[in-house]
Every structure is written in C-alpha cells, then in structure tokens.
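fold-stage: in
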Amino acid sequence: MKKNDKIKILLSILLITMIATWFIAGGNYDTEGTFQLGNITRGGIFDLILALMYSFYYKIHNVFFLFAVGGAYGVLSQTKSYRKLVDKTVNLVKGKENIFFLLTTFITALFVSLTSEVLVLFMFVPFVISIFLKCGKDRVTALSAAIGGIIIGIIGNTFGTYGVENMISAIGITYTKGIGFKIAFFIISYVLYNLFALLHMNKQQKELDETEYDLFLTEELDESKKKRKTKLWPTITMFILLIIVTILGYINWQTSFGIEFFNKLEKGFENLSVRGIPILYSLAGSTSAFGNWTDLMGATGILLVTVIIVSLFNKVKIDDFIDNFFEGMKKVVRVVMVFALVYTIFVIVSWYGWPVTVVNSLIGNGKFNIFTLFLASIVISFYLIENNYSGYILGTFITNSFGKKALAATLMLNSSFGTLAAILPTSFILMIGLTALDIPYKSWLKYIWKFVLAMVVVILIIISIMVYM
C-alpha cells in the first residue's frame, strides 16, 4: 500500500543505521573540540524496540501535540461554523490560488525565520490543505503550500532561535551576526521555492477532486447540523486570537530583539495578589512569558482552549465533543507513528554515535573546505533530525578549527538543513505531511528535486562569497 511506503522507508533506514553500529565505531567531540573515537558497540533487535520507546519518551510533548491537533480538527470538522469558514475562504481564494500560495508561504516563512519552534505551525496545516484541495489542486500543491514556509524559514533563519541556540552559544556570536547573508538566503529560497511550486500548480490542466485525501473534511455533516443556525464570527475571532498568541509566544522577543516587555509583564502579573496570595497567577498555572515558549505545551493549551470555545458557540454536546476528538486522534495515529520512527533514528545515533565518526572523517582535519563541509551537512541533516544538535555536537570544534570562518560554517549547516528538510526521508516536517496526505515519497521527489538542487548551488555560492571574497 502506498500509505505504508514512508514507514517502510524509515524501517529500512533504522535497520541500516543499526547494522552500521557493527562496523563503525562511535565518536564524539569533547569540551575542547577534540574528536574522541570510541569502541564499536553493536546494537541488536531489542535495542531497536527500546529506541522506539525512548523516542516517545523523549518527544512526548510533540506526540501529545500532534494528537491534540488531530483531536481538535476532529471536533472542528464536525461544526457548521468551521465548514462555513473553509467554504468562504475557498470562495475568496478561487481563481487567486497563486496569490494565496505566495501569501501563505511568505507569512509562515517569516514566522519560522523569527521563531523558537516550527512544529507549532502544524496547528494550521490541515486548514491550508483543505483550502487547496477544495480549490481543485492536487495533493502535492496542497502540501507544498502547507509546509513550504517552514522550509523557507529554516533556510533563511534571521532572528529566530529554532535550531541555532547551541551553535550561537558555542561560537559566541549574536543572532544578528551575518544578518545580510541570512536575509539573502530567505529571499532567494522564497523566490525559488515559489517559482517551482507555481510552475507545478499551473501545469495542472483541470481541477482535480482529491478531497478524499483530506483527513478531516471527507465526511458530510449530518442534516441536523446543516440546519442549525450558527454565527461565523466567533470561529474567525478564535482563529485570529490563536494566530496572535502563537506569534507572541514563540518569537523570542528578549533574546532576538532585546524586548523585555513580556518578561516584565509576567513579573507584574505574578506580583498581583490578594492578602499575599497571587490568585490570578496561581489560577493560570504553569505558564511562561510570551517569547519564552520553547516547547509545544503552550501551543497545545491554546489550541485546546480555542476548540472548546468554538464548540461552546456551536452548541456541541459534551458526548459529541469527546467522540469527535477521539475520532480525530485516530486519524493521525499513522502520522504520529512516522514521527516516532524518525526520532527513533536520532535516538540510535545519540546512543552509538557512528555518524559523528563519519562527519569527523570529512571535516576532522580542521581545514575549511566548502565541499566536504556540505557533505558533512548532509550526514548531519540526515541523522540529527533537528539542527540544534549540530551545535551541541560540533559547536566547539567549529569554533576552534574554523576561527573567523565559523559563521560561514554555521550558515552552511543551517541553510543545508533547511534545504534538505524538503527532500530527506528523515525530515519529520516532510514525512508528517506526506503521511497525512498519503503522497508517495517518489512522487514528492519528482516534484522537489529541482528546488533542492538549485538551493544547493545557491548555498555553495553564498558561502564561497562569505569565505573567499
């Protein structure tokens, strides 16, 4: 079955990764940036199972978030107001799909370029996918619109902290260092990505009906819900508030821009008390100031609050809410499993470390070579899953070995990671989307390879300019 091809690919990678532990010794860089080669430690069958369990443990917030997104849209899709919102958006977008595509990728790319977390945008991915499928576009176009901005934003990370905290800390620079080159990466990747995407979309000769692949809008509302009177403004208002809170929460205002307003606001809120008891702060529970949200707990909370309020306005019965929520969760089980398999690969790498040995064989001589560094970037992007771990593993080495070229090396690693996230089978961003829409991996490869190749050329040129001119 096509829907299982992603799982088969990941299981194959897992097997190869484990077999490699029998032949390649693991290694790591010490606090001085010196590579330390360990002994060969062979992994077995039960280690694979244990690694899968650890992937759930390690990423439980993300797993819970993905289930929450599934449950939320399971509820929303059974409300007349959300259906009306989708239909009205489709009517507005129809005939202007190119403009909507450009706006969607720009807004999401800008957010990712400034943010501390990218998976949070998957709160809005089902909505974007529904719009393009209902406009008669194919699944590849729908997915490209939904995740394109994430890819662009990672490549052109400007003031964002996602994936770069460890490296920035290790080489001792500010987030604004090299901002001109970062903006160049953002603009060029945005132009190239949308160029190939629009060429693909406009090749489509006629409208397609691929709405059957929409996880949440395939079922018709029952007649009683269709006749029920409902107001659209509460749903629109809650979605707008959801977007605003997401922006405020996940952009690190103090670290990136030196804005301390939200930290001071939280402190003042904490000091509000009645007879020495901070009642409001205590009622709010475990919260962080806007700008300090680095995991998905905050996103999960505001998403659930949004869905509950929308349900109240739509007079959804508690039993229906619970049933629809669990139905939605069931629809993303395969998505969650793929996500867990991707992170199982990372767990194995963190245990055995042989990819670090491979990376060291490429760049361990300490001499800056743009081509061997790019090859190392491929290995890092394939196995480390999240870019932030490259800073954790290589940060001190890059600082001590490359000196003034350390900034160029970090930009190479980051831009390569973002580019390869569009094509590698270990990219959780890509594999979640392909699984949700049941798009064969080969079909996506045929679509995306031109953009990836073009970006590789751009990366090599820009890094060469930084280093040699």
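fold-stage: in (second)
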Amino acid sequence: MSNRSIAERRRMAVARAALSVHPISPTRAAGAYVWDADGKRYLDWTVGIAVMNVGHSHPRVVEAVQRQVAEFQHLCFAVGMHESYVTLAERLATIAPGPSPKRTFLVNSGAEAVENAVKIARVATGRQGIVAFTHAFHGRTHMALSLTGKADPYKAGFAPRAAEVYRAHYPYLYRNPFGLHGDAASDAYLHQLQDLVETTIGAGEVAAFILEPVAGEGGFIPAPAAFLRGLRVYADRIGALWIDDEVQAGMGRTGRWWAVDHYGLEPDLVATAKSLASGFPLGAVVGRAEVMDAVGPGMLGSTFGGNPAACAAALATIDVIEEEGLLARSQVIGAALSRRFRALQARAPRLGDVRGLGAMVGLEFVTDDGHTPDPTLVQQIVADCRANGMLVLPTGTYGNVIRLLPPIRMSDDELEEGIATLEAAISTALAREPVPA
C-alpha cells in the first residue's frame, strides 16, 4: 500500500479536521529514523511532536511493554491499585522539580493533565480565576482549549469557552513591544501581569497562573529567568499557585528533567505527558503534597489513566534517560544546534532568531524587512527537508518558526546529517525567487 493509496482511503474515512503535516504513511521506525509506505527513509526530527525523546522502539521500552501486556493489560486504578502506577508515582516524585514532598495523579494526555491541574488548583485555593498567557498551547479539551492562546486552528468556532480564564502577555523577548532587553523586558512583562491581576481580576480571585517555561506551539520561546522568578514571588504573595506546563518541554528534552529546573524554581503543580511514556498514552499531574491532598478521595479519576502498559513504558523511559546519560546528551545536542544555526543566522538575516533550551530549539524566519513573520518560507523549508529525507515541523503563533525536536539519543552522525540537511534546505529556500502574487 502506497502513501497515495492510503491518502485516498483517508479522504473517505477520516475526519477532514484531522490534519497531517507530512503526506506520508509511516510503516516502520527505529532510533532516529522513520520509513514510509513507499519505502523512503526519513531522519525524524519531530519525534511525534516531542514524544519519542529516547528514539523510536527503544528495546528497553518495547520489552517492558511486552512483559506487562503478557501479565495483564488493564485494571482501572479505581478498581485495584496496580503496583506500576504506584512505582511510577514514586519515580516522578524523585525527579519532580523542587524539594517538597510530591503526589501524582495519572491521566491519558497532556490536555487531561492540564484540566486536572486546574481542578486541583481551584479546590486547593478555594478560588476560580486562572491566568494563562499569550502564545500558549495547553491542549484541545474544553478547559485546555480555553487556556490556549492561538485562535486558528485551535479555538476559532469552539465556544462558549471556560469561565474565569484570563490572558496575560507571555515574555516573548524577540517580539516584545517595549523596545527593552534582558531583565528590563522581563520587569515590564511582570508589571503588565500584576496590573492585569490587580485591576481586572482581583488578586484574591486568582487560583493559579499556568505557563509553559518554553512556549511550545507558540514558537519555542523560553521564558526568561527573571520573569519566572518574579512570577513565583508574586504568586506566593497573593496566595495563588503556579501550574508549570511541561507537556512538551519535560522528560529531558531541554537537558534537565524539566525546563523549570534550569531556573532552580519549584512550581506547585507540574503537568506532563508526551515523552513520559515514549508514545503510549500517559499524562500526569505531579504536585506538592499539601496541594494535591486538598482534593478528596474520588474527586479525581480516569478509566484508562495510568494504564499498566503505559506505566511500564514510562518506567523504562526514565531508566533509559538516567542510565544512558541522556540529560547530558540533550545539552550537547542543543549546544551544537544553537552554535550551527546562529552561525547561519549571521549570514542569513531572514533567520531572525535562534532560541531554545537543550534539544528544544526554534528557528524564527522573517521577511526582508527583518521583522514580519514569514510562514511561506518556513513551509518551503519543511517541504525541502522532507524531499531530502528529513522530517521537521513548523510552529509558532504566526507559523514562521521551525521547531527542532531531534531524539536526545541520536548519534553524532545523525546530528550532523540533520544539521546539514536543514542548512541546505534553508539556503535553497532563501535563494528561491518568490512567486508573484
């Protein structure tokens, strides 16, 4: 069965709204590579959108899942407390950011983790207001969609949205309106945030601030340390909580277990999913014990959350990251990516910004004026990479960012292959004459 024939069947059977960026049908994957239905091999720098951090079909993960499935496939945790759920909660407590004792609740996805974090925050504080940020993506379920910042294609047409959700400005320093840099820009964003809370919401109404330490779908935008420190102080001052959305940035992607670990800060609640179980549906809320324990027995639940096979995959994934030194490897990969593409940026001004943490790097492209987002150029680069055997993804509020999500277990040769392919695609796209309107 070819890519084309599968696409024809898809048109008749699959909802039109279910988009695929790349017109390929994967049939096999191993390590850093994916093969499609036509037999073509691709270097995969999407890893299922930050899911396969340890690479495709890692033997440790495969073996752990096979062993668990042979024992039993499912027994809802609300029915009986299977040990792998408890063991995973213990492991997550040991790697969670900050020194406070932790508790964990397991779900199926990042959106569910976010939804439940909001529920926990509201019960723990007795308040209702949730402050999210521009350029945010927190999922597609009702509350998660309401927290998400981008209208099209995520929110437009889906109304009414959840109540008591407010929007502050994310510290997007490359596009900040203040004309400031460094800590001065962070201070300006903090002032805006505090003004919103004090004048529009009421400090005593805020249950939680929810923020991605690296805005993912918004354009791989790392929040500055000064802003996060200020947010932590301000949340404590007004009695609000901080929900740290690590769904895309967590589990070693940035060179630490969590992106927030780069700043030495402890959020009250962490939402995680994606790479937690190497492709098996699993998400988690990990939070300070006193916050999590504010919610009574039976108030949270999930039929499939914490499925034994997914828990087995997660435990094996954590083992692989620890035993193979992949946190350090992510930092090496990220440093190489940043170095090479900043060198390219010096020669190609339309590569407006190179930013990220660890192996989570964003390349923002602009038009000849040096500022206007250029999503058309990004689409050309993505297509050129695919034609030359490499998968990358666009992202960003304006669609003008290429997100680099290589597996953090990749070899030096695979890293060089990807950098060279992407550099060539960028050079080709920049040299191509624009098509007249």
